[in-house]
Amino acid sequence: MKKLIILGGPGAGKGTQAQRLCHHQQIPLISIGDLLREAIAAQTTLGQVAHPYVEKGELVPDQTMIQFVRQRLLESDVNRGWLMEGYPRTAFQAEELDFLLDDLGQKLDWAIYLQVSEEVSMNRCFQRSRADDDPKIVQRRIELFYERTIPILEYYEYRQRLLTIDGAKEVTQVQQQILQQLTFE
Ligand code: AP5
After folding, report:
1. C-alpha to C-alpha distance for 82 and 84, rounded to whole angstroms
2. pTM over 0.90
3. Does domain 3-184 have CATH number 3.40.50.2300?
4. What is the Å distance from ligand 1's center to 32 Cα?
5. 141 CB less than 6 Å from ligand 1?
């Protein structure tokens, strides 16, 4: 049973690589950003809570995200493996994910970190037209990534679960690097 997470700043290629990897490994994708955008569009309870944060590029509060991820990992389609993209993003989320996996009798295989410079992040986001790709909002998403998410890389490195990948390369080269390093017990 494969359990993977993909971490990285805005525009690092998390969504792009997650889709390819899920196809390659035949496991379901849990894209937290996409799920939040769908919830906002459908105006669900989660969407209503998340909307004011996502539109400003702020992080949705930990308690909301932790509860949401717990419910998602209890669904039957992910009981034989999964890849989660965009989660965890804070130390608290990382710790709570480990507690949750313990409860579920699961263990994370790898945290895949797609490393790109701030300039690459900016350029890739500016080439898209998502509502939160406005320059000021992208800047805020990048700031939060450095403040809140970079520190959790150490958490996975210490547990020897971190794969650091050069995300600035071309899409298929990034995928190859991931596949070369990915091993399962
Ligand atoms: P989310 O949607 O996850 O946004 P993000 O982390 O800022 O990441 P992006 O979606 O911008 O980029 P990506 O890394 O997926 O890159 P992509 O493959 O799309 O989250 C949105 C918001 O939700 C957050 O701001 C926050 O408010 C909230 N949220 C989400 N998770 C949360 C959490 N855990 N806790 C609290 N709040 C949370 O690629 C980007 C572009 O680059 C594409 O156009 C693509 O075609 C291109 N590209 C990709 N790879 C390459 C490559 N190798 N070479 C050239 N171009 C490439």
Report:
1. 6
2. yes
3. no
4. 10
5. yes
